[in-house]
Every structure is written in structure tokens, then in C-alpha cells.
Amino acid sequence: MENYTLARGVQDFFNALTLGSLYALIALGYTMVYGIIRLINFAHGEIFMLGAFFAFYAMLFTPLPWAVALLVTVLVGGVVLGVLRAVLSASSGSRQIILGAVIFIGSFLLLTFRAVGWVEALLISMLLTAVAGVLLEAIAYRPLRGAPRESMLITAIAASFFLQNVGQLIFGPRIQGFTVETSLNQVLTLNIGGDTVYFTGILLLVPAITAVLLFILNRFITQSRLGKAMRATAQDAEVAQMMGVNVNQIISLTFLIGATLAAAAGVMYALRFGQVHPLMGLLPGIKAFTAAVIGGIGSLPGAVLGGLVLGFIEIYVVSLFPALTAYRDVFAFVLLILILLFRPSGLIGEDLTEKV
Amino acid sequence: MMRTRNTLLTLATVLLAALGIYILTQLPSAGGLVSALTLVFIWGIAAISLNLINGQLGILSLGHHGFMLIGGYVTALLVLPEQERSPFRTRLLSEWARENLDLDKWLRGLGLDFLANSMDAKFIIALLIAGAAASLVGFIVGFPSLRLKGDYLAIVTFGFGEIIRLLPSTPEVARFTNGPLGIKGIPADAGSIWWAFTVFVLTIFFFSRLKYSSYGRAFEGIREDEIAAEAMGVNLAYHKVLAFTISAFFAGVAGGMYASYLQSVDTQTFNFFVTFFLLVAISLGGLGSITGAILGTAIVVLVRIYGGFLEQPYPLSYAFYTLGGLMLLAFGFTYYIRTARRLRPVLEPKHYWFGAIGGVLFLATLIFQNHPFLTEPQQLFGLRRILLAVVLILIMIYRREGIMGRAELSWQMLFGPRAVTPTDEQRAQDAWLSNPELNPGLREDKEGENGAS
Fold first, then answer.
1. Chain A residues with CB-CB distance to B147 below 8 A
2. Residues of A with CB below 8 A from B385's CB?
3. Does A135 touch chain B (CB under 8 A)?
4. pTM of the model
5. DSSP H helical segments within B192-271, as ranges?
6. Could you report the per-residue pLDDT of A147-187, keeping only the tens digit for each?
7. How many Cβ contacts (< 8 angstroms) between chains A and B?
8. Using the beta-carbon criterion (under 8 Å), do B144 and A326 form an inter-chain contact?
9. How far apart are CA B285 and CA B262, in angstroms?
């Protein structure tokens, strides 16, 4: 405590902002799914893990000969587009063709001309993880539509368990390094009050990317037709269906968006901490869920707020009271229980904001 | 008369089971089976106790591993022999815990040397204390159930379980739990098959009595409709907390016995997988049925123990053959089921896709079977866990009531009058209903029908 300087405070601020934005990104997935189908998607942490691993494997890629690249593009692109088409809508022609063309040409060029850097890896991972999220919903959760909520929760737990173990089987159970040779890893320094603050570009980049994603998400939810349909479904699925909203499609879309954000969070988490392993989704997942609950589950601004609050609490408590370091994870659970017990509607109450 | 018969039959079955176990323990080659049975008994106790909350009370509780952990550590500390307490083996254990948390010393201090001389007596006391400690925590965990419902409550119990799981690694609690090193050298007595069997039978006896007592009825009333139950005079708070306390007690006992079975506990012994495993077991057997819980546990334990061959190294082609073959089989089965149920269309495009992928997988493996990628032996670690997860998802989708539903196996069911054979009363009713002279309404209906046609 006695040597806690302003410089350390600033450094903690960067760390907390980064961690908080990662939690916020994951928490959005929880909160959106809960808002729409009242399911605590336990497997969301594993989607996050998949996102990190997709980027990890994408970055192992070396440039391919053009014929192979063409084949891969057609195969992968076909699957991705098929899923996207099924999710978005079957009949909005020209925009989809343009989107498809951009994806095809982009990924073809990507595969042939240069090795995959972290930006491309991030995009690829977001795309693939989105497909994984939609498949998860279609295979495990859709058959249970209308089942008791406990059954859905059990299914979600089982899905989480399944993905963890499949991850261990396919990716190997050990921790693998996720190092990227970019200028982002270089240590930057900043002088404050005679002390030096050390940080890396990643610490600035993560909140920036998060802010961009949140901006896009916000525009999508508030301005687009699909966003409107999502809000309507969240308010009342039955009435929305009567008004002509394809509820199944909206649910898939929710999973798609949630998985995309989780993938972004996963890749950035791996960048930040420099490692990936199949169980990496467990703790961030449960903490992001805590964040969603803190903010008020079902509320989008709440999830972001909750994520930031949790990030700041976690970093500053550990930094101010080093004796509590071992209780860092316990702390998140205690907070979760307390919030659920004493203010289940979270900081931003469910009734005050629109749920998605 | 019926009751006497049932009691006698039950006693005879228990004796027969005991005889069977005795024969098994005498056979030199049955060591694996004996330890598998022991595990079935120990896990069965835990599953039955979880079933009380999840099945009978209808609250999804995900913190059972926490209760078991408390039982395990308490038992381990209390019965740990003197030489295992030496500082070298238990570095993180505090001096105070090492010196004072010793059942042996307590008993000798009280002058009860005859108890302290018998390991079994010490275990009985230790398991009771372990159960009491766990039930104290269960009592606390039960309180949120008064405020919360459904999945929020499930998350709170999960949170409690995880907090309890994380605590033994923290420096303050490590003074009692020895941190990640864990406690080793626990005597194996209570993990033996006779112990497990006895406690298992007692547990079944207790829970089956409980199920049909006023408490059990109250639990099931709460499961069906809380408001209605309250209106009928069921004290919700009392019964919910009571169920958690009872369940945690038996979970603690099971945890203590499991620690004795393994002869060690550490921070990894009771993780969330334990609760998941029990959840699969009771869901498979049927939530709310004690018989189902036992059946489910037996199946799951046997898969875990005898499923080892699944994780042996095989050429990768085997895995693909199996996967493709299973997908084709599932395709065929779907066709059969949907035809039998007269569903139209008989097969949807997704089914054809599924079957086609399976077929392609199978054929591709057949064509490329000599490719080095496929002939290289591979070990599929964790396949049993993956299977358990898949089984749980499939149960939830296709047969939510599990094998038994809420029914219990009873002597009445085995030897009682068949439901298809009508009783005298039913015969009388049928006679009355089919006799137009006694039942004038029947004739009118008939005439009405004739008139309409």
C-alpha cells in the first residue's frame, strides 16, 4: 500500500480497461442469449476458447499454392455462406452476393499472397466461430425449444463439457504459446511523476477494438431491420412471431453475434496473455457471466458496464491488497452470489432498459 | 401381511447381495469388479442425495462437489494417522491443525480408548462429523433457495460449489487442507466394499422412507407447484433448507468415503466434473427416482471403469469407421422410427445430409485406409467424458424423464397385481358401464349416434 504510486495506478488502469473490455465482449454474448431465449449459455466460454484456437491455427498457415487456395476458399466459403444465409435471410439477394464475393476474393488473396497475421487471424476466427456458435444452437439448443429451463441449462452445461473435452482431444491438453511478432508487443514507457509506466500496444488496442465492435453492434441493434426484430423477440417472442419475425432465425443470429464477439475476445485474450489452452474459456466465461449479472442480465449496456466494473474491481483489489491475490477467482463467485441474492436485476435494472 | 412380505423380500435381497459380494471378494480374479462395485456404491450415495434436491425438490443444484469436498477433507484430517502428519508430508498444514484436528487424540482425551483403538469406530465418528460439517454448509447454501428460483438458483449453487472448490488452494485455508499438495495416506477402511455396501443400503433405506414420508410428499409438492404447496400448508423455507441439509449430509459422507477409497484428497479430487458426473447419472436414471439414480450411477461408473478400451491407441481409421458407421446407423434408425410413427416427410433434408456425411466418411476411410494419416495409432483421450456429455444432451433432447421416470422399483411392481388384470371393483364398474339397463345414458348415446348416421 505504501508504495502505491500514481504510475502504478495508471498501469492498473490500462490493465483493468483491457480486462474489462474483454469481459464486456464475452458478457454481451451471455446477455443477448439470455435476453432472447432465457438460457444461461454455459458453453459460451468454450466458444471463446474456440475463437482463440481458430486464430491460433489460422496463424500457423503459410501461403498456399493458388489451386489449393481456390479449393479451400470454395469449400470453407461455401459452408460459411450457407450458414450465414440460413441465419440472416434467404431472400435478400444482391447484398449477399456482394458480401460473398468480398469474402471469397478476400480469403483467396489472403491464402495465396502472405502468411496470416493477427488481424486476418482475428477476422477468420470471428467468421469461423460465428459458424460454430450457430451450429451449437442448431444442434444442442434448438431441439429443446419450449423445454423446461432447467433442461436447457443442463444441456448447456453438457455442451460446455463436450466442447472442453473435444478441445482437449483435438487441440491437445497442454498450454500453447500464442506469440505474435508485431510492434504491438514492444514495451512502451510513459513517465508520470518520476515513475515509469510500462505497457504494450495491445493494452491500448484491445479497448479500441472493443469500442469499434460495440459501436457496430449498437448501430446494428438500433438501426437495422434485423436488430429491430431482435429487440422485438427479446421483448416477447410470441408476439414478435405473430408480427412476422422469424424467431428461429433471430435466435441463430443472436448466437452468431455472441460467438463473433466471443471470438474477438478470445483472440485478444490470447494476444494479451500470450497463450491458448482448451480450458481457457472456463474462468473468463464464468467471470463474464458474473459481469452480465452485475450489469443486469438481458441488458446490453449493462453487460458492458458490468464487464468494466468487474475488470476494474479485479485489477484494483489485487493491486491494492496483494494479500488477496489467491482469492482473485473466489472473489468473482462471491460477487456473483451476492448480486444474484440482493439485486438479481443488476446495476441497470431489467425494466429500465430494453433487453436484447 | 403385504408389508411383512415386502420387508422379508427386501431383507432377503440385501442378504443375497451381501452373499454375492462375499463370494466376489473371495474370488482372486474379481478385484476390478469389486472396486467398480465399491465406486458404484459410493457414487450411488452421492447420486441419491443429489437426487433429493434435483429430482424430488425440483431445484437444480450444481454445487454437490462442494459438499463432497468438505466431507472428504474433514474425514481425511480427522482419521489421518500419526506418521502421515509429520511436517515433511504435510508442509502447508499448520502446526495447530496438525496437532489438534486429530480424532484419535480427542477420543483418548475423553478416555474413550476402546473407540480410538478401532479404526472402524473412528471412521464412523469421522464420517458423521464430516456429514455434519457438510450439512452445515448445505444449510447455508439452502438459504438462497428461499429468494431465488430456476436457473439463477442453479448458478448460485454452482457459485457456492466453486468457491468451496477454490478455497483449499488459498493460503489461509491451506493451513487446514495442505493446499494443492493435498492429504495423502488416509486409511482405506471406509473405502472398502463392505463399508460402501453398508452405508449404501442405509442410505437407500433412509431415502426411500423419506420419499414416502410427509417430508417427501412436501418436497414433491414444492417441485410440482410452490404456490399450491404453500397454500396447502407446506412451509417452503423449512422444507427447502431441510432438503439441502439432508442432501449435503449424505454428500459429505460419500465424499469422506471416496477420500478413503482413494486414500488421498487434493484440490483436484472434487471438481465440477463430480457434479456433472452425478447429474448425468441421475438424469440418465430418471430425475426423482431413487432406483433411477442407482441405475444411472451404475451405468455411468461402469462406462468410466470399463470404457478404458475406448481410449487405447488405435489406428485413426477405426475412429472414422466407427463415427461413419454410427452416423449411418443413426440414419437408418431415424428412418425406422419416423416410418413407425408415420411422420411425413419420412426423412427431411437434414437427415439425408447427416446420412450422406456418415456414408462419405465411411467410404473415404475405406478408400484411403492405407494412408499413413489413418494407419498411425492415435489415442483419443477424454472420449468417455465426451460420450457422457453427448449422452446427457441426447437424454435432454429425446427422453427427458430418463430410464425410470419418477417410478421406483418396488415389490408391488414385481409381484403385485398387474395393471392389465382388472380388479373386482373395475370389473363391476365395467359391467355397470356396459349394461344398458343399469346405465341409461349409454342407450341414449347409441341412439344418438344411430340417428346421426
1. 341
2. 161, 165
3. no
4. 0.86
5. 193-211, 214-224, 226-231, 236-262
6. 888 889 999 999 999 999 999 988 888 888 887 777 667 77
7. 110
8. no
9. 26
